[in-house]
Structure formats: C-alpha cells, structure tokens
Amino acid sequence: MTEQIHTGGCQCGAIRFRIEGTLADASVCHCRMCQKAFGSFYAPLVSVRDVKFEWTRGEPKRFQSSNAASRGFCENCGTPLTYEAPDGMAIAIGAFDNPGDIVPIVQWGVEAKLPYADDIPTLPSHATLEDPNAAPFLQTLVSYQHPDHDTGVWPSK
User: Which of 40, 65, 96, 130 is the most exposed place for a label (fewest CB within 10 A)?
Assistant: First the structure.
C-alpha cells in the first residue's frame, strides 16, 4: 500500500510542511478561542498525531492561548497553522496544498457556534469576477502568495 503524502504551508511560503500517512479526526471547532485564533467563524483542523510530520521550511511562531494549548502561526504573513495540546498537534486544513482532500467528520465547541453559521450555504453564491464593479480591479491583481506545492519558484514582488 502506498503511503499518502500531504504538503502545505503558510500564505507567504516561509513555512512548509510534509505529512506521510493517513489523516484522521478532521474537525471544525466553534469555540471562541478557535474563532479568535483563525479570525473566522470556526477553525478547521486535522490531527497529525498518528502520521509522520515534518516542517520542511521554517517553523511557526507560537502563542500560548491557554494553560494547555498553543497556536502556531507564520510570523511573516500571519497564517494560522497549528493547534498544539498535550494530546497532540492539529494542522489548519486551509494550510494544506489540497484542502479539499480533507473532510471534517465532527464539530466541536458548538456552544459558541455563531447563530448564522449554519445558514451560510443558503446565501446567494457568485464567482469572484461576477461583481461588475470589482471585476476590473480584481483582474489587475498580482498574487504574491506562495503557490500550492513547492515548485522551487517563489512569487516575485
């Protein structure tokens, strides 16, 4: 059987990681600490407890968010990367090169779930360039974000 390989990193590319093995326990956490750490409605995370994990470029700076857990992030671009507790580490699903491959199977911290979170899928949906007022501006943007996957080529600024 072939080992699964997963890679990812932060938005600017200063931090990259590689995982060998089958990922499990993907979740979203609605607790207030996760909302603050991700600046979002919830934190999508996957455990790396039972896989081979390595930082291949750089390593996150950490913030001790409670007496039991710390949060890793890129100090250059601010990308949230880890939740680290005594029982192991979890990685932000959005930091993976192929986040669509990792499907959450449980929600935690639902007592703090924002009241409108379940209604988001019912909102009208549009592609980015469908906004006629924003499209001309958006078409001129040049991304300095590190591309998904290591190519050996870094974005120019």
Answer: 130
Instruction: Tell me, yes or no, whether 71 lies in a domain.
Output: yes
Q: Which residues contact 74 (CB under 8 A, 6 or more apart)?
A: 10, 11, 12, 14, 15, 58, 60, 61, 81
* Proportion of the chain above pLDDT 70, given as a percent: 94
Domain count, the chain: 1
CATH code, 24: 2.170.150.70
Stretch 10-33: mean pLDDT: 96
Which two three-digit tokens encode residue 99?
């986040």
Q: What type of residue is 129?
A: L
When pLDDT is cut at 50, 70 and 90, the band that residue 113 belongs to is very high
Residue 132 lies in a domain: no
Q: What is the pLDDT of residues 32-82, one digit of tens each?
A: 999 999 999 999 999 999 999 999 999 999 999 999 999 999 999 999 999
Q: Any idea how long the chain is? A: 157
Burial class (CB in 10 A: 0-12, 13-18, 19+), 136: exposed
